[in-house]
């Protein structure tokens, strides 16, 4: 009788080797998550239904709303819906992370000789890739209801990049909350997210709100990304004299950086300290 010995490679100690190790493991886990997503018709249907709703929303309200500064409401609305979609993606991240933890998948990853940050990076890879898919469908649907970008393909791609940056930052928040919340509590995440996306420049310009409410809306992270996207798309709605309104592009980079500075270490810490 022969015994097969499995040799576990030693953990790298060089910082560059550790980074390479984490990136490779992150890609492997991300690819695995994408396979699961592709075989889950419920998640695919969810990705398809929201863009269809945007078409309906644009047609129903497109001719009844007034845009501050003038312009088409449909062109004003669509960047807001893009930003809201990226924000709501945090629920998907929370659901998948919490479900994997409840089923013991996360614990199995922790017992394997892999980088501790690889699992979180893999979740980020999978969610960003699916967000690209969602944005592609959203853009096509937006074009169908009359939305257009006016400043060329380069700025338009830059706006889509800002949306994906925002989504990437929110993935880390979703991972953290998915690791601390049970599966049955994750669905309640829509309760705080809905007012957070409504109290922004998503559907109405903050200049059309009461001053105190408009000030809160202008400093909303969603508002920063949406305002910067409207500017890059050449869409109406880029108005306001406040510091936040005049520096939306800066805040579109600053808010994701702040979110990651907070939730990246929290997510890694929580992952490493899960109860066995």
From TrEMBL:
Positions of transmembrane segments: 48-69, 81-103, 124-147, 159-180, 187-204, 248-269
Localization per Swiss-Prot or TrEMBL: Cell membrane; Membrane
Keyword annotations from UniProtKB, A to Z: Antibiotic resistance, Cell membrane, Membrane, Transmembrane, Transmembrane helix, Transport
One GO process term, biological-process aspect: response to antibiotic
GO molecular function, one term: ABC-type transporter activity
Keyword Plastid on entry: no
GO terms for cellular component: ATP-binding cassette (ABC) transporter complex
Membrane topology summary: Multi-pass membrane protein
Family recorded in the similarity comment: Belongs to the ABC-2 integral membrane protein family.
Annotated protein name in UniProt: Transport permease protein
């Amino acid at each position: 009788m022969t015994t097969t010995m499995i040799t576990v490679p030693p953990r790298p100690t060089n910082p560059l080797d550790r980074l390479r190790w984490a990136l490779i493991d992150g890609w492997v886990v991300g690819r695995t998550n994408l396979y699961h997503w592709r075989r889950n018709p419920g998640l695919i249907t969810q990705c398809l239904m929201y863009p269809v709703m945007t078409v309906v929303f644009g047609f129903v309200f497109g001719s009844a709303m007034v845009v501050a500064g003038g312009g088409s409401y449909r062109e004003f609305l669509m960047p807001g819906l893009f930003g809201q979609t990226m924000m709501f993606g945090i629920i998907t991240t929370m659901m998948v992370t919490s479900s994997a933890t409840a089923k013991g998948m996360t614990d199995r990853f922790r017992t394997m000789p892999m980088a501790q940050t690889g699992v979180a990076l893999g979740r980020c890879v999978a969610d960003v890739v699916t967000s690209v898919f969602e944005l592609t469908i959203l853009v096509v649907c937006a074009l169908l209801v009359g939305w257009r970008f006016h400043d060329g393909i380069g700025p338009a791609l830059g706006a889509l990049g800002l949306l994906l940056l925002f989504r990437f930052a929110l993935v880390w928040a979703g991972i953290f909350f998915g690791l601390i919340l049970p599966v049955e509590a994750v669905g309640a995440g829509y309760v705080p997210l809905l007012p957070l996306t409504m109290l922004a420049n998503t559907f109405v310009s903050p200049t059309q709100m009461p001053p105190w409410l408009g000030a809160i809306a202008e400093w909303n992270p969603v508002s920063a990304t949406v305002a910067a996207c409207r500017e890059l798309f050449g869409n109406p709605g880029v108005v306001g004299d406040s510091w936040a309104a005049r520096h939306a592009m800066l805040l579109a980079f600053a808010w994701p950086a702040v979110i990651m500075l907070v939730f990246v270490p929290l997510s890694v810490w929580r992952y490493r300290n899960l109860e066995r």
